[in-house]
Specification:
Number of strands: 23
InterPro entries: QCT, Quino_amine_DH_bsu, WD40/YVTN_repeat-like_dom_sf
Structural class: mainly beta
CATH architecture: 7 Propeller
Number of helices: 1
Organism: Brevundimonas mediterranea
Helix content: under 10%
Shape: globular
CATH topology: Methylamine Dehydrogenase, Chain H
GO molecular function, one term: glutaminyl-peptide cyclotransferase activity
Strand order of the largest sheet: 1-20-19-18-17
Oligomer: single chain
Distance between the termini: 50 Å
Number of domains: 1
Strand content: over 45%
Protein name: Glutaminyl-peptide cyclotransferase
Amino acid sequence: MTRLSSRLAGLVSGLLLATGGGLPARAEVPVQAYEVVRAYPHDKTAFTEGLFFHDGALYESTGLYPSFIRQVQLETGEVVRQRDLPTVYFGEGMTTLNGKLYSLTWRNHIGFIWKLDDFSPLGGFSYPGEGWALTTDGRRLIMSDGTDQLRFLDPDTLAETGRVSVTADGEPLDQINELEWIDGEVFANLWQDNRIARIDPETGVVKAFIDLTALVPQDAGLDPNDDVLNGIAWDAGGKRLFVTGKRWPQLFEIKLR
């Protein structure tokens, strides 16, 4: 054995001993730090399902009965415009693209299309399974259904054009909830989890978690099982990131470090 091959064998042997034999240990998904920039008022009766920021305004959809979609003034929390869904529908996530607002329902297998500027109805669409959340990359709609899957939809036909499985540390990550497209990544709430996952939309791999446990209100009489972190909105022009939760009294602007 040459001196080089002997040295290489020693390095490999040391690596196997350090990892307990076999393959090297898989690196854990990093946790990204953040700071709170500002807190805004939020309707503490709103069971938040969807959230997005567009042209200076905040838009929110809720669940429960009745569910609604609304436009909200960020600074005051004042409702500018609201449309209630028929009481048979439990509302879920929503997004906007090309002047239309798309919204989901939980277990009715039905989505709605609205005119963004006045919430007048434009049509509907259907899908298999549950509807949890929607976002867009500017050309496709991206949908979650509570599993580890992200679905891609054509915004004109609403046909599914593909899927990706979300994984963290090589394992499937389910309970994918509210979604937001931010600079080429999908940010996702996880149901009953205080973390946001930053997902590569091409591979489904979680690149980082943002742990927002410190933001959860402790003295607002919230139900820890239902009134959980949910709602991500991105102001692309101002580079501002907003987060809130179901029936939370505040919405927070945070900055990632």
